[in-house]
Amino acid sequence: MPNEGSTxxxxxxxxxxxxxxxxYIPLNHGSYGTFPKVVREALQGYQNKIESNPDKFMRRDxxxxxxxxxxxxxxxxxxxxxxxxxxQNTTTGINAxxxxxxxxxxxxxxxxxxxxSSIRELLMxxxxxxxxxxxxxxxxxxxxxxxxxxxxxxxxxxxxxxxxPNMRIKLAVIDSISSNPGVVFPFQRLIPILRQxxxxxxxxxxxxxxxxxxxxxxxxxxxxxxxxxKWLYTARSSAILYVPLKHQKKIHPTVTSPFTxxxxxxxxxxxxxxxxxxxxxxxxxxxxxxxxGGEEKIRNYCKKLAIEGGKKIASILGTEIIxxxxxxxxxxxxxxxxxxxxxEFSEKKFIDLMLNNYNFAVAIxxxxxxxxxxxxxxxYTDIDDFEKVxxxxxxxxxxx
Length: 400
Ligand SMILES: Cc1ncc(COP(=O)(O)O)c(C=O)c1O
Description:
By secondary structure, the chain is α/β, with parallel strands linked by helices.
């Protein structure tokens, strides 16, 4: 008997399962995510339940509902249920970690030039607030770049920095998959190297859960944050903050909780009144994924489409994608045939045309002296979407 998932064919035929407009070409799942109708129904179900009796929910049910949701996701990423909490998004989770840690004179914070913009701002904020103590060490990561070359470069920087007197690298913020460009980063390989050098590993896994397999026990980072609303199909917004028991006493939410004295889980579970429904949609999201065929089927479809679709767009534009293929999972980066010296062209003009004139979506950014777009493959997209976007983007580029 065929398994249930084989009845779901990915591509355009999955569009009725989502709320997306018919004439919109959605190749930008990576920025905000989107969720299926069944998750929307679960979300509305929780909201209706809460509104039917807010007191019962907040005073009586919330704690156990959050526990059940944490239990479900803890199994999915192989972690103890008392080592994770929900936070609104990755930005909130990484803020909690970096603003909770204490910094001493000579501490250095390591990160790559591909760090997400708001996390770079956060690192600068930490430095400004500890200006006597903290130094930032940025490692240039210019793609195309092989995994080995990047790891070698990071190891070299760590060795050089360690030789300088009276300073130590306290922590490193590393991506699981960076944003611009959207490339897979070998964080699993780097964590043991960081640990050997007494450096705390903070993984910005904004794009991780639902895109790449995660076994947190095996990966064993010091801290990990991942958005469920991007690739896992929960309602927006919802993220997981992982803090192992050994670090929990020193990490607090950025917004102070009335339950600060009660420990990690209660403290993070209530940082003021909010709508908790999106966190509870984790059950529906995981059920949907199972029903349509499971993690491997989703991953394989998206990776294959990202590579084929990226190459299709690049061939229309007469350019190339960022490789090698092992840096690609669900997102692919394609060079635009526009010089950065062309001041007629800008990100804002591209986005205005994209949204107002053509109704498609990709991410656009400058990297290593070139303009790129980042296209996301999803189970509701197919090669025709990439081809259409290739022709539209060519028309836009030709107009400059
Ligand atoms: C690598 C990376 N880190 C952090 C973030 C921030 O995520 P959020 O806006 O959900 O906090 C993003 C968002 O796209 C990202 O790509």
